[in-house]
């Protein structure tokens, strides 16, 4: 591990972008407890270049505090820089969750689900994305030709996703030109959502290595698509099926 290496403290905000501050790896241990400061107004950044009106101003801060269970150090190939990242919770200075922390939203909702129903939520993602850049020519939808045209990217991306331990199940061409899908297996609760963020950032990083851009925008100019999310409610070791106007029933 190079002494010049950065580890990126990452948080996903209300517009679905991963924001970050990087610190030298040698300083990471002392950042794990109290994190790094981030202005409250930073949560109102748009996907463009402006800040939405907000009540906070530039002074007050939260602490972007790493969750070490999400730390990933992903090596691509020898002559490419590693992607070293960890996901963060946005905490008040007293250590309580900030009201605009997206991970804390999910934690609270999962706790409510468990306390009120006894159920846990398992999540699996199918991440569809568009590759754009030089050399992205037309290819027949869903074809082997489509995916083999970008095989250097796919090989690098799949290796990195396996290294990132996101439960990769399939990598396949989709309907649009340059459109692909990565499916990951189910994971319980917060870890399932974390997988989705890590998966997207690994795909984006692999694309950058070939001067390509990977976009997860759900409605590009010509052919719309979605990111499919599969939710399974689990009671103990049993899946639960919800039927309209009936009590929750175990799957048969």
The count of DSSP E runs of length 2 or more, i.e. the number of strands, is 14
The helix count comes to 5
Enter the CATH topology name of the largest domain: Creatine Kinase, Chain A, domain 2
Specify the overall morphology: globular
Separation, N- and C-terminal Cα atoms: 50 Å
Regions with pLDDT < 50 over 5+ consecutive residues? 248-252
CATH-assigned homologous superfamily of the largest domain? Glutamine synthetase/guanido kinase, catalytic domain
Domain count: 2
How much helix is in the residues? 10-25%
Class of the largest domain in CATH? Alpha Beta
Largest sheet: 8 strands, antiparallel
The topology string of helices and strands comes to: EEHEEEEHEHHEEEHEEEE
Please tell me the CATH architecture of the largest domain by its name: 2-Layer Sandwich
What's the gyration radius in Å?
20 Å
Any descriptors?
252 residues; alpha+beta; Ubiquitin-like (UB roll); Creatine Kinase, Chain A, domain 2; eight-stranded antiparallel β-sheet; six-stranded mixed β-sheet; 5 helices
